[in-house]
Amino acid sequence: MAEARVFDVHNCILGEGPLWHPDRQELFWFDIIGKQLRSKARVWDFDEYVSAAGWIDHDTLIMASASALWRFDISTGWREKLVDMEADNALTRSNDGRADPWGGFWIGTMGINAEDGAGAIYRYYRGELVTLYKNISISNAICFAPDKSAAYWSDTLTRHIMRVALDPDHGWPEGPADVLIDVTAENLAPDGAVVDRDGNIWNAQWGSNRVAVYAPDGRFLKAVDVPAKQASCPAFGGADFDQLFVTSAAEGLTGAVEGRTYVVDSVGRGLPEHQVRL
């Protein structure tokens, strides 16, 4: 199996939210605690926590911050507020998020100090922000089955990755979410996740130096090792979507490998991220 190599040497305090922009052929990611959006070419600094993004068009992202969702212009750095999100709650911030196959954007929040049940998971769709799940401690692993049948998500502290069926017409959850993957026995902590073209779930596991791969039925298939202990989120990219990018976090650790962004070649093949439609 190919080994992970350094994609970017910057030591993010809390690297998160990698997004391969399929139109630009460019990776974007965040340092949440550093309040930065990053790429190889440029760094954007903000006055609040920022954590996740989706692509709207060649020059524009939807971006989640501690207080709102924003339309962000990559070339100029200009941003326009789309909707407030927990703007009246100074104790929470955004965390994991991803676009869904219908052009909506799912985004999770959490307490700044991971307070129990302080966060939620929302969906922004056709101009409206709707609460999907409440009492979430650390929102993570938001991703979607390629056939549009299901969404996956996690509250990291539960050590569960959940599956919920989706309405095929508009993408809203149908019925309760069920536990698909339970890593309690292994004492693992599910962080960010992405789904490949075969429907397998690639889950970064905080504190474990790895991204674990699970079949659509929840069976463990393999693990991809990364040098950084606190791997936080994977994303597929590259011209053929056969490169796996992995962010990590240096928070609470020492050592040059921590907080860097890594890439692993030819370990799987993903799909383009869905385009957000405002």
Architecture overview:
This protein is mainly beta. It contains no helices and 24 strands. Strands 1-24-23-22 form a four-stranded antiparallel sheet, with no helix packed on it. It has a four-stranded antiparallel sheet with strand order 2-3-4-5, with no helix packed on it. It has a four-stranded antiparallel sheet with strand order 6-7-8-9, with no helix packed on it. It is globular, with a radius of gyration of 17 Å.
Q: Percent of residues in beta strands? A: over 45%
Distance between the termini: 40 Å
Low-confidence stretches: none
How many alpha or pi helices? 0
Percent helix, as a range, is under 10%
Class computed from helices, strands and strand pairing? mainly beta
